[in-house]
Amino acid sequence: MSEPVLPEGVERRSIDGNERLATRGEPVYGEPTDGEWRAWNPNRSKLGAMLELGMDTGLEGGDDETVLYLGAASGTTVSHVADFAGPTYAVEFAARPARDLLEAADSRPRLFPLLKDARKPESYAHVVESDVDVLIQDVATRGQARVALENKRFLAEDGRLLLAVKARSEDVTRDPGEIFAEVRDALSVADGYEILESERLEAYHADHLGIVARPR
Ligand SMILES: C[S@@+](CC[C@H](N)C(=O)[O-])C[C@H]1O[C@@H](n2cnc3c(N)ncnc32)[C@H](O)[C@@H]1O
Fold first, then answer.
1. Is residue 182 part of a domain?
2. What's the pLDDT at 2?
3. How confident is the model over 193-202, as pLDDT tens digits?
4. What is the four-CA torsion angle of 131, 75, 80, 107, rounded to 10 degrees?
5. Cα 14 to ligand 1 centre (Å)
6. Residue 182: CB partners within 8 Å, gap ≥ 6?
7. What is the pLDDT of residue 192?
8. Residue 140 belongs to what domain range?
9. Cβ neighbours, 10 Å, residue 184
10. Which of 1, 64, 118, 122 stands the most exposed, by the fewest C-beta atoms within 10 Å?
11. CA of 94 to the centre of ligand 1 (A)
């Protein structure tokens, strides 16, 4: 099988003597740079890990690709996304990381930070355009499948969900494998998602599962 292609605007480049995923933009988290290119650290980013592991995210990149990103924190990953995609709506409910997120948005006119709760999509429905191409979710909260299902309303019929599931956010005492199976089942309800690919992100993030899915 051939390697899935990287989105336009994401390249493998030699930075600091290592082959690294990279995007073009202002640095955000002290990552090494080479000219206008900034390294994308997969140990700090679940989406970066999914790309490093060769998962077929369906991301294309370019000005026309719209993204809704849930759990933006201080902007580590979503800043890379806004470097290569079009309008990128970044939802984060904690005020402290959101301050850094605003800073990351300063040099990125296509990045729109929203200080909102991803469990209450109706609170940002008036801002986020409908039919977004990609819904990316990395929220450290219980009920991660529910959040993905509730935000499906924003996703185009042929769009993609890129979900990072953190087992410990659901239950620290249980086996991650069992939790991942439950999340997959919860997503796969009739009006939910069809899972296209899922892979443990263990090499970069302990007890996390990466999922690529599309609306049913
Ligand atoms: C693992 S961090 C995200 C890291 C980020 N995605 C990155 O790669 O740069 C999880 C984030 O989810 C946020 N979060 C948790 N529950 C949330 C909710 N209901 N709505 C919005 N953000 C939430 C937390 O405040 C935290 O910043």
1. yes
2. 59
3. 999 999 999 9
4. 100
5. 30
6. 145, 170
7. 98
8. 59-215
9. 17
10. 1
11. 8
Decide if 8 is inside a domain: no
Domains in the chain, number: 1
In the sheet with 155-166, reading across from the earlier edge strand, the strands are 111-114, 88-91, 67-70, 132-137, 155-166, 208-215, 193-200
71 C-alpha vs ligand 1 centroid, how far in Å? 3
C-alpha 42/C-alpha 64 separation (Å) is 25
pLDDT at 34: 96
Q: Where are the alpha helices (DSSP H) in 25-162?
A: 46-52, 76-84, 95-106, 144-150
Residue 11, pLDDT score: 98
Residue type, 164: A
Is the distance from CB of 26 to CB of 107 less than 8 angstroms?
Answer: yes
Is residue 7 assigned to a domain? no
Pair 37, 11: CB distance under 8 Å: yes
Does some domain include residue 104? Answer: yes
Mutate to test the pocket of ligand 1, among 123, 138, 207 (most ligand atoms within 8 A of CB): 138
CA angle 202/85/15 to nearest 5° reads 60
Give φ, ψ of 133 to 5 degrees. -80, -35
CATH code (residue 92): 3.40.50.150
Return the residue whose CA atom lies nearest to atom 27 of ligand 1.
73
